[in-house]
Amino acid sequence: MPKSIAIERSILFNMRYLVISNNGGMLYIYRGALLRELLKNASVTVCVPHGGEEELVKLGCDVVYADVDRRGINPKNDYKLYKNYKKIIQRLKIKKKK
Fold first, then answer.
1. Which residues have CB under 8 Å from 90's CB, separation 6+?
2. Angle 27-82-49 (CA atoms, 0-180°, nearest 5)?
3. Out of 35-39, 48-52, 81-85, least confident range
4. What is the pTM of this model?
5. Are 41 and 12 in contact (CB under 8 A)?
6. pLDDT of residue 10
7. What is the pLDDT of residues 36-47, one digit of tens each?
8. Buried (b) or exposed (e) across 32-57, using 16+ Cβ within 10 A?
9. Cα–Cα distance for residue pair 15/84, rounded to 1 Å
10. Measuring CA to CA, which residue among 66, 22, 16, 20 is closest to residue 44?
């Protein structure tokens, strides 16, 4: 689906989804059907580490990158990731008209 169509649909339906995953390829394999259904009526943004996001872009998803240490056990790094996710969510929020 072309990006312009996804943007038009998100404006019409005013629905946006953010899907966070630690592996873009596995997200496509196991949740590709779900993403296709969501894209019919909404805009979908996926937050994944670099690599494996080509299929998600072909589906019509917007991609945001986050550095994820998949095997990390350092609480400081986990807190940094949490803060990064929080920034991403704030940046993607739609400002409501008054």
1. none
2. 35
3. 48-52
4. 0.77
5. no
6. 54
7. 999 998 899 999
8. eeebeebbeebbbbbbbbeebbeebe
9. 22
10. 16
